[in-house]
């Protein structure tokens, strides 16, 4: 990863992108893509995509997809005394939400608040995790009017303040690595394709879609629009190499051992086979996981679209998902980029991944 790429990744991670309010981060991603593709577009709800067109006519289309949104909070109620109650935005974990700093997007700019945490000496909850409705945010205000003067109202959204930290050389720690880091992987794939002067046999659409955390919505919209012939969904998966995780129950996925290919009904075996073959041929580390039903990622919206789209789910191992200290290994980031570049190179003009009789 060069300094320019690291600067882009840092800016992308530092920019709040809560579900439904992704546009500030989307503009950063789109600006990064423009030098490497033919066209960058955006739909009504903010999903962005960049197209690298094949020089051949009447060729298939590949969609590479990540999601742009992150979990957070939304203001539900402002009390007369200035304390604010919140709703979860996506899969925010209330168990770790007390005693945190949160950046809210107000009409006059960002506003920092803190989630209250009553001292353990005078708390009578037997150590139980709070419910979402138990959480409250303190903006240092003493009335509803003071809060409103800050540019906040019911519906204002916020995310944790925690920015990127590089730990022990290659371990990246930050909120929103799910899935901003995969949006970065897709952008780096486009950069590599341009710098290596790859002329793809297929049209390549690099997608960065919205509202995954609340139902994989943006990916469904984009897939319906562009009608891809195959798709690869980039998301994160649970690394199970930290204490207390039963590998018999959750599988064996580790940081630093490469991306993780999902196997299951939603994941097309012919597409998976190509990715496995390329990983072996190019000596790219690759791990495996299984899902007995759907994947819980945008792959579920992609493969169901129209008459069905052959789709693979390639995930980045991540510790501490949906927390302010999500942790990934930069070697796994490079491995995913290498595999995607190899896949684009491998495509043939008249091939497909559909099953045939």
Which secondary structure elements does this structure contain, and how are they paired or packed?
Blueprint: H1 3-14, H2 23-33, E1 39-42, E2 48-52, E3 61-67, E4 72-78, E5 84-89, E6 101-106, E7 109-115, E8 136-138, H3 144-149, E9 157-160, E10 165-167, E11 171-174, H4 177-195, E12 203-209, H5 217-226, E13 230-238, H6 247-250, E14 259-263, H7 269-281, E15 286-290, H8 299-304, E16 311-318, E17 326-329, H9 330-346
Parallel strand pairs: 3-12, 3-13, 13-16, 14-15
Antiparallel strand pairs: 1-2, 2-12, 4-5, 4-9, 5-8, 6-7, 6-9, 7-8, 10-11, 11-17, 14-16
Helix pairs in contact: 1-2, 1-4, 4-9, 7-9
Could you explain the architecture of this structure?
The protein starts with a helix and ends in an 11-residue tail after the last helix. The strands form three sheets. It has an eight-stranded mixed sheet with strand order 1-2-12-3-13-16-14-15, sandwiched between helices. The protein has nine helices and 17 strands. It has helices at residues 3-14, 23-33, 144-149, 177-195, 217-226, 247-250, 269-281, 299-304, 330-346; strands at residues 39-42, 48-52, 61-67, 72-78, 84-89, 101-106, 109-115, 136-138, 157-160, 165-167, 171-174, 203-209, 230-238, 259-263, 286-290, 311-318, 326-329. With 357 residues, the protein is of the alpha+beta class. Helix 1 (3-14) packs antiparallel against helix 4 (177-195) and helix 4 crosses helix 9 (330-346).
């Amino acid at each position: 990863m060069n300094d320019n790429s690291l600067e882009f990744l840092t800016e992308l991670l530092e920019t709040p992108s809560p579900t439904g309010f992704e546009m500030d981060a989307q503009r950063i991603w789109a600006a990064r893509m423009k030098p490497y593709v033919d066209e960058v577009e955006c739909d009504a709800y903010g999903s962005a995509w960049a197209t690298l067109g094949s020089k051949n006519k009447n060729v298939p289309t590949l969609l590479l997809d990540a999601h742009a949104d992150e979990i957070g909070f939304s203001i539900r109620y402002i009390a007369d005394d200035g304390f604010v109650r919140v709703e979860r935005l996506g899969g925010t974990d209330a168990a770790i939400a007390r005693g945190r700093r949160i950046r809210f997007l107000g009409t006059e700019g960002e506003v920092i608040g803190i989630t209250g945490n009553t001292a353990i000496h005078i708390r009578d909850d037997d150590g139980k995790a709070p419910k979402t409705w138990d959480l409250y945010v303190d903006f240092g205000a003493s009335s509803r009017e003071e809060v409103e003067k800050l540019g906040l109202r019911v519906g204002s959204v916020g995310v944790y303040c925690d920015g990127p930290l590089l730990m022990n050389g290659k371990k990246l720690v930050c909120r929103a690595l799910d899935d901003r880091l995969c949006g970065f992987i897709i952008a780096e794939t486009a950069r590599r394709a341009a710098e290596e002067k790859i002329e793809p046999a297929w049209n390549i659409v690099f997608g960065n879609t919205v509202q995954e955390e609340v139902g994989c919505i943006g990916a469904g919209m984009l897939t319906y629009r562009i009608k891809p012939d195959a798709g690869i969904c980039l998301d994160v998966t649970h690394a199970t190499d930290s204490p207390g995780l039963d590998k018999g129950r959750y599988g064996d996925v580790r940081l630093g051992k490469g991306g993780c290919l999902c196997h299951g009904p939603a994941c097309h075996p012919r597409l998976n086979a190509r990715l496995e073959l390329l990983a072996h041929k190019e000596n790219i580390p690759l791990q495996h996981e299984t899902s007995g039903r759907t994947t819980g990622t945008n792959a579920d919206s992609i493969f169901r679209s129209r008459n069905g789209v052959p789709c693979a789910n390639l995930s980045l191992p991540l510790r501490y998902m949906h927390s302010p200290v999500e942790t990934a290994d930069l070697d796994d980031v490079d491995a995913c980029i290498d595999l995607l570049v190899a896949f684009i190179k491998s495509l043939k003009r008249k091939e497909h991944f559909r099953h045939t009789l």
